[in-house]
Amino acid sequence: MTSTIWAFSVFVIAVIFIVLMTAKYKLHAFLVLLLAAYFVALFSGMPIKGSVSLIANGFGHTIGYIGIVIACGTIVGTILEKSGGAFSMADAVLKVVGKSKSPLAMGITGFIVSIAVFCDSGFVILSPLNKALSKQSKISLAIYAMALSTGLYATHTLVPPTPGPIAAAGLLSADLGTVIVLGLIVSIPAAIVGYFFATKYASRFKIESDITETYDELKKKYKKLPSATSAFLPIVVPIVLIIFKSIADFPSHVFGTGTAKIALDFIGNPNTALLIAVFVALFGLAPNFKKEVIGTKGWVGIGLTNAAIIILITGAGGSFGAVLKASPLIPIIKQMPLSHSMGILLPFIIAAVLKTAQGSSTVAIITTSAIIAPILGPLGLASPIGRALAVMSVGAGSMVVSHANDSYFWVVSQFSNMDVPTAYKTQTLATLFEGVTALIVVLIMAPILLH
After folding, report:
1. What is this structure's pTM?
2. What does R_g of the chain's alpha carbons equal in angstroms?
C-alpha cells in the first residue's frame, strides 16, 4: 500500500512540476519534460545507471519515428506561408463559396491551411484578408475572426501533418493514415460548431475593421499569387499517399502483395510522403530555387528552425513516457479495472487540464501522450484503432481552452481589434465548444470502432 501511494505521489508531483514550470515560470518545455523524466526515474526506485540510458533511448526512439515527418511538414508550412500559397487558397475558396458567404470561406480556408501551417501563423497571414472582407461586406470583424480562428484550430490539434497530432501519433504508436482519416472526421463537426458560433453568437460584438484596402487592392499587393493547384498540392499529396499506404496494409490486401503494395509502402511511408511534399511545394511555389528559399537562412532554414523546437519537445516527451512506462506506477495501473468509456475520456481530461493550465496545445498534446502511452492497454486503447482514437481524444482536450496564457489567444485578439473581455467571450468560449464537440464525436465513434 505504501509503495502504491509513493508511486502515485511521484507521478502527481511530476505533473504538477510540468504545469508549474511551463505555466508560471515559463521554463522551456524541453527542459521541463527532461527534468520530469529524471525526477520520476530517480524517485521511483529505478537503477540510476539504467535510468539515464532509458531517458536517452526514449528520446532517440521518438525522434526516429517522427523527426523527419515534423521537419518536412514544417518546411511545407513555411513555404505556404512565405509564398502567398495560403492567400491563394483563400482566394480559391472565396471563388467557390462566394463573397456573400465570406465568413464561411474564411472558416474553410483556416481549416485547410492549418493542416500544414501553425494556427498562429495562419491567423497572422490571413488576418489582412479577414479585415478587408469585413470592411467590404460591413460585417463585424468578430464574425470573421471567430470563423477563421475556429477553422484553423480544428485541424491544428487533430489532423497531421500539423506537428502536434504527428507527435501524438508517434508517442502513441498510432498509424498516421488512420489518424489523418479520423482527424478529418472529428475536426469537421468541430469546425462547423465554430462557424455557427461565429455567425450566431460572435455577431453580437460589433468590431470595425481598421484596414483601408479593399479585397482586390490587397490581392494586388501579392503581385503574382501562386496557382490554387500549386498551393493545395503540398497538403493533398502526402495525405493521399499516407492514406493509400494504410489501405495497402489492410489484411484484405486491397492492392495485392506484389509491386503495387511495395511501391505504396515506400512512397506512403510518412517520411517519404512528407519529403515528396517538400519538393512539390518547392517546385510549385518557389520554382526558381533561390538561396532566399532553399538556403540556411531561407524559407527551408526557417522551417527547420521552427521544426527543431517541436522535435526536441517531442523527444523529451518520449523520454518522460519511457520512464513512466518503466516505473512501478504502470503495474499498479494495469491491475486497476478501467472501462473503455473511462479510457477514451482520460486522455481528454488530462490534455484539457494541461492545456488550460499552461496554454500551449502542442505541449499539452505531447505531455498527455507521454503520460497515457504506457497505460493504453488498461484503458482499452491498445489496438491500432484504439491508439488512433486516443490521439483524437488528446487533440480534443488540447483545444480546451484558449485564454490569456495561450499565444493564440493574443494573436486572435490583437489582430482582430478585440479587447480582452471580448476575447474571453469569443475566443475562449469558442474553443470550449470546439473541444467538447470533438470529444462528443470521439465518444460516439469509440464504441462503434472498438468492438
Report:
1. 0.91
2. 22
